[in-house]
Amino acid sequence: MTKIQETTLEINLPSLKANYHHLRSKLSPQTKFMAVVKAFAYGSDASELALYLEKLGVDYFAVAYTKEGIKLREDGVKSPIVVLHPLQVHFKDIIKYQLQPSIYSFSVLGSFLRASEDQEHYPIHLKFNTGLNRLGFNADDLEQLLEQLNIQEQLKVASVFSHLGASEDLNEKSFSLGQIDAFKKIKNEITSRLPYKPLFHLLNTSGILNYRDLAEFDMVRSGIGLYGFGNDPRFDDTLKPIASLKSVISQIHHLQPGESVGYNKGHIADRVMTTATIPIGHADGISRQFGKGKGFLTLKGTKCPIVGNVCMDMLMIDVSGLECQEGDEVIIFGEHPTAAEFASTASTISYELITAISQRITRKIISK
Description:
By secondary structure, this protein is an alpha/beta fold. It contains twelve helices and 19 strands. It has helices at residues 13-24, 38-43, 46-56, 66-74, 91-96, 106-115, 142-150, 173-193, 205-215, 233-236, 339-344, 350-355; strands spanning 8-12, 32-36, 60-63, 81-83, 100-103, 122-127, 155-161, 199-201, 219-222, 243-248, 251-255, 260-261, 267-268, 273-278, 296-299, 302-307, 315-318, 329-333, 362-366. The protein has an eight-stranded parallel β-sheet with strand order 8-7-6-5-4-3-2-9. Strands 11-14-17-16-15 form a five-stranded antiparallel β-sheet, with no helix packed on it. A four-stranded mixed β-sheet has the order 18-10-1-19. Strand 16 (302-307) and strand 17 form a beta hairpin. Helix 1 crosses helix 3 (46-56). The longest helix is centred in the middle third of the chain and has 21 residues, at 173-193. The radius of gyration is 24 Å and the shape is elongated. The termini are close together.
């Protein structure tokens, strides 16, 4: 493999394919699959990954906001794209780009009805709150909601869904089972009242891995699992992280006891030591939380602690005793340590770390 010369996020498509097929293998053949590619496909490259997943047979894509869906359309994605948190100001663009909104309240429903007055059977997705208490209609909204839907022909419900709040935590199994039961009741009521049958879906990645026997329904959604994380060591071992974040040594410094490193004298050398400056910082997604010895980078198989405060565009690591030079490669995360392992050193999670990786960092697609 070509040696990198700058900070680079390598995105491995064969690993993405393996993760997709692994998750697919847990499901019935007829179950549809929605790939969640919001937040730049969890910090990687949404369009590249969506086009690749489209070829693999993904049925739907999901984004958080309208602009993300527009970008996918402009880059050639043809499959249905659901906007999970559409803002009313963007409804005309949703229709223009043939995106499909999640409708989660009566005010949103009324606004989209006005925006789509010249449409017929435009696909929408109904979001229900079953315990996460973030977005969604409540079960006691069903009567009024179904009455409104059944007296108009502008919109057609393509799917009905909810979101599990603790599917990765088996200590909260009773909570998840309560959500599943609540969703089943919603499903039964809608099925009996609508003149057609929409798709129903509840399971996210952890739901697929923990609750598929109870709540597979017609479709599942996966985001973090596609990118290589199962939110549990049992499952992490069966998935492959698709992204590897690497950088290079820009400069090496030799310090005497008492000399300091970085802003606010974040580290004071207590011995003769050698540091290496790396061109990545908190503007790139490596937050100050990783500084002062919490996080580490890997150089030639050796963990090198981050010393001092992480700067906006740079950080420094302790390379004392290692044979190294400017231009040598360092690993922030990848196969080992994984993004989850690196994130844990600063008491955060893989989601926050990988979605924060700045788009100014070069992306390199590994296709084989």
